[in-house]
Amino acid sequence: MSRTIYVEGIKPPDEKWLKMKQVYDACKAAKLEAPSEVQKFFDYREPDAKGVIVEQKKLGDAVTELTSEDAMGYDVDLTKLDKDITILRFSYS
User: Fold this and answer.
1) How far apart are the first and last CA of the chain?
2) 22 touches 91 (CB < 8 A)
3) How far apart are CA 47 and CA 66, in angstroms?
4) Are 27 and 41 in contact (CB under 8 A)?
5) pTM for this one?
């Protein structure tokens, strides 16, 4: 069985995140769709308590695939990441 590894960057909540989350929550409570600006901010996902999730494809050349006889995975060049990204999430499915 094969598994796929994903790398995501996370920008922890800041003042803008908190405001967007309030709008998202208010819309959800009212059973309304959040404004497109809010949906786009959260990358069309439900907000993550850790902050804004930046998908691997948006991390650009900071992430390169590692393939060798001994291991498979990714190298992440931290110097190429946006300075707001302070958490890296590695997950697989």
Assistant:
1) 11
2) no
3) 30
4) no
5) 0.80
